[in-house]
Amino acid sequence: MKYNIDRIIACAIEEVENANFAATQQFLEVYQIVRDNGVPVVSRVDTETDDDNATVYFPVQGEKFYFAVYLDTEPEISVRWTDTEDAYSVYFAIVSETLDSPMISAMTNLKPTKSWSKGDKSANGFQNFTKVIFEPNPEADEFDDKIEKLLDYLLTDKENIKRLVDNYGGYIQVSAMFHNGNTALGGVHLNKDIIRKLADLNLSIDFDLYAEGNLFKEEDGSWYE
After folding, report:
1. Which residues contact 142 (CB under 8 A, 6 or more apart)?
2. How far is it, in rounded angstroms, from Cα 66 to Cα 89?
3. Which of 33, 44, 154, 161 is the most exposed place for a label (fewest CB within 10 A)?
4. What does the pLDDT look like over 4-39, one tens digit per residue?
5. Residues paired with 24 in a beta bridge
C-alpha cells in the first residue's frame, strides 16, 4: 500500500499541538517535544506493517525515548492512540584483544556500522580492545522489529557470522532506555522465531536495561510513587 507520508505527519503533529488524547495531555504536562523553528521534529515514520496503520516517532527534549503517535491509515488517516516508545540499540558485536578491526571486518561480507582497534585514540586515551559493531536498524523502532531485522541481516552471511561467533565470541547486545513515567517499565519479549534464529547462529544475547524520565501526574494531581 502507498502511504501519504505528508498527511500522516501532519495528522500526528496536529495531535502533538492540540493534545486531543488524555495520554498526550499527560505526557506534555511533564515533557517537551523537540522542535525546529517551532515545528515538532519527526524522528521517523514507520509504515512497515501489514496492517493499515503507521507510527510517527517524536524526539523528547533531554530524553532518549520517544513520544509515539499511532495512526490508522484506512478508511482515512486518523490518530488511534499515543504513548511513549522506549529507545533501543540492538547490534551484533565482536570484541578482541588480539585482532584489529580490519581483520575482523574481512571475515564477513557485511559492512560494520562502527569499529575501532586496540590502540586507537579515544576520548580517555587509547582503546584497550578492538570492537566491531553491526547495527542495521539504529533508528526509532520497537524492540521486536529491531531484533528481527538484525537477525535477518546476519543470516544473509550465516556461515561467516557463525564462524565469528564460534571462534571470536560474537554476540548480540541490547541497550534499552525505558520511560519511567509511572514506574511500570515494561520489558522485552523473545518469540519462538527469534529464539530459533538465535540458536541457528549459535548466538548469545546480553541486555543492558535503563530507565529515565519524569513521573506522570495522576488524575488527582498527585505524582506516581
Report:
1. 85, 88
2. 13
3. 44
4. 899 999 999 999 999 999 999 999 998 999 999 999
5. none
Residue recorded with cell 488517516? 77
Kindly tell me the burial class for residue 94, based on how many C-beta atoms sit within 10 Å of its own C-beta (0-12, 13-18, 19 or more): buried
Reading the block at residue 45, the C-alpha cell is 515514520
Give the domains, in start order, of the chain with CATH numbers: 5-85 (3.10.450), 87-212 (no CATH)
Q: Which three cell numbers stand for residue 105?
A: 571486518
Q: What percent of the chain has pLDDT over 90?
A: 77
Residue 182 has pLDDT above 90, yes or no: no
Q: Is the dihedral of CA 33, 34, 36, 42 positive or negative?
A: negative
Over residues 162-172, the pLDDT tens digits come to 999 999 999 99
pTM of the model: 0.84
What would the grid cell of residue 110 be?
557485511
